[in-house]
Amino acid sequence: KDKSSMDNKEIEEKEKMEDEEAKKIVESITDSITSGDKKDIEESTRDIVKKASLAVGSLKETEFDIRFNPDDEDGDFYKKQCTLVKDASEFLLTVQIPSFIRDCLDHSGAPMEGMSLCDNLHNRGVNLRYLGVIANMLAKVPQLEYIYSIAASEVITRCAKHLFTSFMQNIELTYLSAAISHFLNCFLSNSSNLSVLLCSFPEERRHKKNKKGGKANNNSKNDSSAQEWASLSPKTLWADLCREASSYYNFSLPSALESQGIDAILDAYSLQKISLLRSFCLKTGIQIMHKEYSLEANSSSQIFSEEDILNIFPIVKHINPRATDAYNFYTTGQSKIQQGYLKDGYELISEA
């Protein structure tokens, strides 16, 4: 018993010694902080914050004050961003786009229509602003003439979508169907004189408002401004489309386009009006009536009327979830069919 009690006392004394040593260490640390080390720590933290603020482009050295100023062209950060963009563009032009063309020649990633072309470019990190450059490269490869037609069609419909967006800005809801049908007629018709037939509903509505004491002068002003879209003609539309393709995609459309209209596009790129119509409607969300339209190249009459426009839906950009295994089987099956292995391609597509 005496030995056990002695051992317990020794253990307690050791614990007390350790506690005292720990207290002394803590006191020494606090004393050093309160004396001179505190200043050193503050200076080091200031230096760290200052370096981090300069790295992220902060306007203040003591805190993160980040403001996006597009007019600031003198900073080092802006110059670094410019060089980074140039390097990325050079990489796309010298590596990614030529590898895409080689894959098309090998039939390992050949697109079948505009949507698959855009997916292939996005998967390689290529922005669609390079569509014109890609189309010009494809024009030099006779084996890829069909992909050249797809790329040219995509450029044309996307430029038409840009013009359509600005065209729809100041249109009243009562004239919406008439304006859309007029734009489609200017886009796909060869007629030089397109008359716009407006429904009588807006006139009747204004007449009723005037009877109830409505403001007739404002209505007449709104009517004149709302019908400015009716002055659009195929010639002006295709002239604007040529400028849009040149400035946005660096792609030159045929010089005979202004005189021949849509016929020059069909002949130069081996396209069909129905494919242009489908692609344009998918990009803009326009729903038209399901019927047989007179889309012949020699037809000079109006193709669409106000009753043909059923609805217009918003197009929201999002990532479509898809099964990667099924998509890989499907694309591999497509490449097998293009290489001539019909049975293997059919089995892969069926499995997908």
Features:
mRNA binding, Clustered mitochondria protein -like protein, two-stranded antiparallel sheet, CLU_prot, elongated, CLU-central, mainly alpha
Quick structural gist:
The chain has helices spanning 2-56, 76-105, 114-123, 131-138, 145-167, 176-188, 201-211, 216-226, 234-249, 257-260, 262-269, 273-284, 324-339, 342-351; strands spanning 286-288, 309-312. The chain is mainly alpha-helical and 352 residues long.
Describe the overall structure.
The chain has 352 residues and is mainly alpha-helical. It has helices spanning 2-56, 76-105, 114-123, 131-138, 145-167, 176-188, 201-211, 216-226, 234-249, 257-260, 262-269, 273-284, 324-339, 342-351, and strands at residues 286-288, 309-312. It has 3 domains: 15-67, no CATH class; 70-317, no CATH class; 318-352. The protein contains 14 helices and 2 strands. Strands 1-2 form a two-stranded antiparallel sheet. The model is unreliable at 200-218 (pLDDT under 50).
Overall residue-averaged pLDDT value: 78
* Biggest sheet layout: 2 strands, antiparallel
- State the low-pLDDT regions, or none: 200-218
Secondary structure: number of strands: 2
How much is the radius of gyration in Å? 34 Å
- Secondary structure tally, helices: 14
Name the helix and strand elements from N-terminus to C-terminus, one letter apiece.
HHHHHHHHHHHHEEHH
Task: Please state how the strands of the largest beta sheet are arranged side by side.
Answer: 1-2
How many independent structural domains? 3
Amount of beta strand: under 5%
Q: What is the CA-CA span between the terminal residues?
A: 83 Å
The secondary structure category is mainly alpha
> Which outline best applies?
elongated
Helix content: 55-70%
